[in-house]
Design goal:
Peptidase_M32_Taq (chains A, B); three-stranded mixed sheet; metallocarboxypeptidase activity (chains A, B); zinc ion binding (chains A, B); Neurolysin, domain 3; 63% helix; 3% strand; 3 strands; hydrolase (chains A, B); 499 residues; homodimer; mainly alpha
Chain lengths: 499, 499
């Protein structure tokens, strides 16, 4: 074994350059979605394209290959070893796609997104169909370049949830689906319904903002390492561990969007803010997967934010910010109303019980597409059939159906399952957490520090040092199990709907 | 002459890369001064350093040298020709400094700025002195590398106001100084003084913001290509022609800062927003010099914003936004108060009449320093002597004297004269403009379009296609002449102070 100290030093310099490009790109994106003046967008897109190309060049450079080869089995430093692994995977996956094909694909992506927008506006799937066909073809091709063991779709899943396969999903999803639809039946049959009307009313933006800032502060979001801004499609973004920004959207006639949206993005941000500083400027300094990220946002949004304990301790605070109209609503009515279950056409408007059903529809369709079992042209019909089967409703148009999500227009196949996985992870984490502390009591007394610190200790700090299923196993001592989500939902909704 | 079409195409690609880095750097700076969370600053500084280094590499690359050599005398395209000139100058100036010296200098700069801040806080010049000595030495060395004809200081002046020399300044400054001090004498002797008390009072930030946004809109600042944000030290910044941002600062007990500050930065922004779009993505797509830039900001701030005509047409508007306390102040008292002349220690707080005297003090001292005629250690004493001579007051401490400005700590010698030059240019432009239209009538009727369009036609559109003195000559038909500034000030202040 040779002395690799100097080589590691040079390797770290290269990683710093990558981080610098990543921060510049992240800042450009954040600005484009929150601050940029209208006419600045065109030039900015070119700037982002240029910086992304430079980053890509570094990730696939001969220099990078050299570091990987030399350091791979020769470093004693655990962080360097994991970093090399991450870089190697990036390198291999990127190099396997011929440069020309990748460039064509990038152009197809941006064209497709524009066409999808038009198609959605006009609710005309045929406009989007030829583009989607090409996107599916490219993704099949890429999946074959990347390779897989059992199912071609696994190669795509790997981009978002490494380690999770169709085999896993096909084990957990059907049982989850049956449980959810049976819960949904009971809810539909119940005569004890929450009254969503109690949440209706004008809630000024400035008051919503003040309330959401207060909640973020209480969650332990560090404002000296972040900030909250307004946007159209809310997101959290990490520029670096010490600059993790949250965005939200205020609807003055529907305060739920800002409140739960901010708690959700705040959950993502807590993850990124609490990564071990020793990982800074390496590609490990971010959440390990989409699913684990979503477990953090959904834990805070649903298991904390939509819980009875949370509102028992924060309802007075809410009233301090809320206008007159809300002051006379009893706590119990309020709690029930924010947890109304009602099948809806649009995924991002779904309640927490029906949400996973939306995901499964997308998963089943895209898996079949990539496996060549169905054709793109059949998607609208199949979509509506599955909506009828799982949710009992059929969208009146493709705009509210197959055309609603942006993901496929960007070629993002394999992404959707992360949302449901994250939810199951969250429930499983919640189960373990409850064995170690009385979570409801802590929430009910507004003491979030212990909860947040537990997640930092078990999840946040590792960044990409651990794979998603490794985290699940290390934290809970078990493999992924949908039972915890079903138990949580059953307990909660049998209470609310009294069945 | 060979066919250079394809080479020009490649050259333009290189320029686009430069522009992309410049936009990324500008955005990072804007964010650092307006939005960044406290803990994000450290990492961001590294990102900016990295991007600046990449930009510097492009500007001094062999590729750049190749394009300069091939295209220099071989292009028929006027924009390409001027761009090559600009690139060549950049290339030559950068290449003349040995890389090691440049790196040492950059480190010295950032260290010196921190030391200067400490020295200023403690009002202890001796802390700063050794750093300033080194900065002066480096600047002398660089000036010798760059070369000059008559005075070594000219090599530094060239960085900010190409074409202007100490010879020019030594022609215009003494006469200007005599006129200003004699005007100041008359003002001091006058018994008819404005009453600044009428401007005192609480003015809520949100109201100030609404008023300044309204004024910017009326000036013709394009909000679809820009935005207004809050900062500590206001500035305007161009990310590209279609994204030119303005910042301001609100002091609730002194609304003048935000109002005149925003008009000033708005003047800078109008320049950058109205550059010929054909220059986009070339290094010509920005203001031609610090002085011409300052002519635009000062024209709007002083010749428009502090004029009687402006307040005659905008005083009702002001009152719409202003709190009760200001409603009873008569227009004439208000106008006189915003134009109070009073020698002050701090340059950036100076009124428009004494402002150039502050500049001359700095010019005379830095010219003598660079020429080795005085020593750094003698600066505090010399500073105070000149303050006494020109303004009749002596700062109580170096904090309010020689240590007040950041410029020297960044090694920016040769910058200060631009402020006074810009003011003289503005007066000279104003004189010409008045021959073509009744400027006061237009201002008095709130019609700024013709004025702005005149500046776009004669100044803005050219970006760096014309040198500063070329613009002055083309617009006014004359060489630089301080007379117009003296005439303007004499007329205005003999009215206000009745002498």
């Amino acid at each position: 074994m040779e002395n690799t100290y100097l080589i590691e030093k040079d390797f770290k310099e290269l990683l710093k350059e990558q981080s610098a490009y990543k921060e510049a790109i992240a800042l450009a994106h954040w600005d484009m979605r929150t601050k940029i003046p209208k006419k600045g967008v065109e030039q900015r897109s070119e700037v982002v394209g240029f910086l992304a190309e430079k980053l890509h060049q570094l990730e696939t450079s001969e220099k990078m290959k050299y570091f990987i080869d030399v350091l791979k089995d020769n470093t004693k430093d655990e962080i360097v070893r994991k970093t090399v692994e991450e870089c190697e995977q990036n390198y291999e996956r990127n190099r396997k796609i011929p440069h020309d094909e990748f460039k064509e694909y990038v152009m197809l992506q941006s064209k497709s997104e524009a066409i999808w927008q038009e198609a959605r506006e006009k609710s005309d799937f045929t406009l989007f169909q030829p583009y989607l066909e090409k996107l599916v073809d490219y993704n099949k091709k890429f999946a074959n370049y990347w390779g897989y063991e059992k199912n071609i779709y696994d190669a795509l899943l790997h981009n978002y949830e490494p380690g999770v396969t169709t085999e896993t999903l096909d084990q957990v999803f059907p049982a989850l689906r049956n449980s959810l639809t049976s819960l949904l039946d009971k809810i539909n049959q119940s005569t004890v319904k929450p009254d969503p009307q109690v949440l209706k009313g004008h809630f000024p933006k400035t008051k919503q903002e003040a309330f959401t800032l207060d909640i973020l502060e209480r969650m332990g979001y560090d404002f000296s390492s972040g900030r909250l801004d307004e946007t159209i499609h809310p997101f959290a973004i990490s520029l670096n561990i010490n600059d993790v920004r949250v965005t939200t959207r205020y609807d003055e006639e529907d305060f739920l969007m800002a409140v739960f949206g901010t708690i959700h993005e705040g959950g993502h941000a807590l993850y990124e803010q609490n990564i071990n500083p020793n990982l800074a400027s390496t590609p490990l300094a971010t959440g390990t997967s989409m699913g684990i990220h979503e477990s953090q946002s959904l834990f805070w949004e649903n298991f904390v934010g939509r819980s009875e304990s949370f509102w028992s301790s924060h309802y007075e605070l809410f009233k301090n910010y809320a206008p007159e109209a809300f002051q006379s609503v009893p706590l119990n009515q309020f709690y029930r109303a924010v947890n109304e279950v009602k099948p809806s056409f649009i995924r991002i408007e779904a309640d927490e019980l029906t949400y996973p059903l939306h995901i499964m529809i997308r998963y089943e369709l895209e898996k079949a597409l990539i496996n060549g079992e169905i054709d793109v042209k059949d998607l609208p019909g199949l979509w509506n059939e599955k909506m009828k089967d799982y949710l009992g409703i059929v969208p009146p148009s493709d705009k509210e159906g197959v055309l609603q999500d942006i993901h496929w227009s960007g070629g993002d196949f394999g992404y959707f399952p992360s949302y449901a996985l994250g939810y199951m992870y969250a429930a499983q984490f919640n189960h373990t957490l409850n064995k170690e502390m009385n979570v409801n009591n802590l929430i009910a007394s507004g003491e979030f520090d212990q909860i947040r610190e537990w997640f930092t200790k078990h999840v946040h700090q590792y960044g990409k040092m651990k794979k998603p299923l490794e985290i699940v196993n290390d934290v809970t001592g078990e493999a992924l199990d949908a039972r915890y989500l079903v138990d949580y939902l059953t307990k909660k909704y049998s209470g609310i709907y009294q069945f």
